[in-house]
Amino acid sequence: MTGTTEKIAAHEVASWLRRHPGFLKQFPDLALTLVVPRDDGPTASLASYQLDVLRDKNRELSRRLADLGHTAQVNERLAVRTQQLTLALMKQSTVADTLRAMAASLEEDFDGDLVRLVMHTPVAGLEQAPWLQIIPADSPLLGPFRDCLKDGEPLCGRLQPEKNAVLYGARAEEIQTTALLPLPGVGLIAVGSHDGNRFYPGMGTLFLRMMGEALVVALQRFKPA
């Protein structure tokens, strides 16, 4: 019975202190004599405990700030490369040159281990390009991609084996993760990586979308009036 009474009294004291956080300012001697248990057993003064808490928070804030700084640098580099890609695409004078510029940028500037472009219609001058496939929009081969081609949403992560087989053929087993960019009415862009952590679900796809939009606009210049 005594233990129950003490537990209730302690709870009431804690509740009262929460409602009066300035209480210890009125009794600084009490604050200095309070002890707080540590994880490893010994006790410390409240002031020491609060200092440790502040240090932990400071380290966590510093880590978050460093992460934000790194993310900002990565995004800045991607923004510059995306702009350079857009300008390069707009400078090309044929469909073939435009697609070559796209493939080269994805390989060189965006660290793609294996880049694949899928177009629905043949492209003159690229009959032997190893990174290009011509698959009609109504081909059964594109069955696994129907949903993403319909909504145009980029996909990042590990693709299903049947998708890898269509995109990468004999080299499908080399690819662990992919950034897949559907271009409704045009085709697909796939950037494959040997790294199982390179592309993952939930990662930002803003720059992928921008690259895809730039390619679509660049290709529209060559459509018959």
Write a concise keyword list for the protein shown above.
225 residues; alpha+beta; Beta-Lactamase; 5-stranded mixed sheet; 14% strand; disordered N terminus
Architecture overview:
The protein has helices at 2-19, 23-26, 28-33, 46-91, 95-108, 146-151, 161-168, 206-220, and strands spanning 35-37, 43-45, 114-119, 132-134, 155-157, 177-183, 187-193. The chain has 225 residues and is α+β, with helices and mostly antiparallel strands. It has a single domain, classed as 2-Layer Sandwich (Beta-Lactamase), CATH 3.30.450. The strands form two sheets. The protein has a five-stranded mixed β-sheet. Strands 1-2 form a two-stranded antiparallel sheet. The chain is elongated and about 85 Å long. The N and C termini lie far apart (91 Å).
Give a quick precis of the structure.
The protein contains 8 helices and 7 strands, in the order αααββααββαβαββα. The chain has helices spanning 2-19, 23-26, 28-33, 46-91, 95-108, 146-151, 161-168, 206-220, and strands at 35-37, 43-45, 114-119, 132-134, 155-157, 177-183, 187-193. α4 packs antiparallel against α5 (95-108) and α4 (46-91) packs parallel to α8.
Class derived from helix and strand content: alpha+beta
> Radius of gyration over alpha carbons?
29 Å
In helices, the fraction of residues equals: 40-55%
**How far apart are the termini?**
91 Å
Strand content: 5-15%
Output the strand order for the largest sheet. 4-3-7-6-5
Task: Kindly report the average pLDDT value.
Answer: 84
Assembly level? single chain
